[in-house]
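Researcher: Please predict.
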Amino acid sequence: MYAEFKIFDLEENFELEENFKNRYINPPMLFSFLLKNYNSLIKEVGKSEMGKPIYKVTIGKGNKNILIWTQMHGNETTGTLSCLDLLKFLENKNSIAGQILNEFTLDIIFMLNPDGAEIWTRRNIISIDINRDFLAASSVEMQVLKKIANEKKYDLAFNLHDQRTIFGLEGKKEPATLAFLSPSESIDRKITHTRKKSMGLIADIYKEMTKLIPNKISRFSDEFYPRSVGDNFQKLDIPTILFEGGHYPNDYYRKKTRKYFTLSLITALHYATIKKEWEAGYELYEKIPNNSPSFYDIIYRNVRLCKEKKETVDIAIQYTEKIIMGDEEISFVAKIEDIGDLSLMNGHEEIDAQGRCILIKDSKDKFAKIGIQADFNLDEWIILNGKKLEEFA
């Protein structure tokens, strides 16, 4: 008899790992924490290109094996933070956690790309996108992942990522806070038995999580990427679920996204525990709205580009993320991303300039340009780093 699963109760009792509240994770701080708190469960499984350790935490005593890896892309930390929260949940000895740990042995590779994580870059230190390196395995990080994957038979894999704020739900003015994918095994995107298993579990996640965040969950494109990890794991008959943490309104540090990401992990593990056939209900997967690149961070509507023109345009602003060495959290730099008719695009924030004219500060150029930092005037409005000045007060 399995424990009753109540997603609202799980949300109400959600506990984050208090030692990691920021979106940025300093690799030495993470390593020190894992070694101190999970010493009996942790093992160094390799080193990065720069010689930083890569750790695997193993928890559970079940006969079935699950492989989870985080921060393959160095600037995608939600998966790492959520796995820290997941460990806290599994240690709390509640009935759902107990069932998961009895059914499965979980191998969690924390921060596969610590070099990229330290300097907040997607790629590793020698500029390889690890998620496009499965076949060549030119990076030592991919060699580590493949070595681990070959050490035992894995029944399920979770590939944890973040996606940019540009993504929303196709046909809706809603951001994609979470996106999921059952990767394809071939260019024709055939729905194989292995894919059905991961689709069925994603359908379970979707059913539960839409109760908490309706209209904020999407289905990532299943275009076949022959060099990618998820696609190749599926080909190896390991059902694989790609998790993407995205934008929640006014949550650029992804604290709410982190919570829902963690609850999605718990949901997936619960249903993998109780379902005899993971593919059951997979048909719902294809009804999940498509992920769509339909957002900018800010859009200023109805802007005149110069005094001589009465016609108006839209100006899109997008944040670039960076870490300044020594800081404990990332910074955001707003830049002009597009200019023109953006009526078919959405902004996480939209401001009607009502025909105000743009003037670029400290510039000899008469017109706004794509790619410049978003510091400008809209007549009497002062815009600093994309925001109206009074909003800083």
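Model: The first helix runs from residue 7 to 12.
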